Amino acid sequence: MSLFPSPRPASAPRRRSLLASAAGAALLVGCTGGSGSGDPGTGPSAAERARARAARDSDELAARYAAVVAAHPGLAERLGPLREEVVRHAEAFGGARAGSPSASAASPSVSTRAAGPGDGSGDVPADEKDALALLVRAERDLADRRSRALLEVPGELARLLASVAAAGAAHVFLLTEG
User: Do residues 92 and 162 touch, judged by C-beta distance below 8 A?
Assistant: First the structure.
């Protein structure tokens, strides 16, 4: 029993009860709002678009690797494992499996140009060092783009993007080493 009587009647709600009720209501409202991704006819969700973009980007990067190998066969041993890893990244994002490095290198459309934007950055330089710099730039740009996209996608896709971006950064290191 309290020594001092309470100034308010016992039937009035306590402040803690009101705050707890308001917080619970806010949580319920936040949990019931849908993203609309499950609604038919609304088109692909942001996560699906990001996944498709990541697969396309990896496919294009694999084509760049193949074009550099086709133009500079002496780099095939060094670039082959990196290209295969990029192909696995495309598969992880749901992209189509690209052909083997030898099949892609034999393709006439890939032998003179790497897949890339129409700004001329897809040309494979005649010098091996410049060709490697082209790959370094492509890997670095893609890793940066994927790192920026992390905040816009849900958890599992964000983890995959982070992992592949880290692999891209490792590729940059391996391409610039030696």
Answer: no
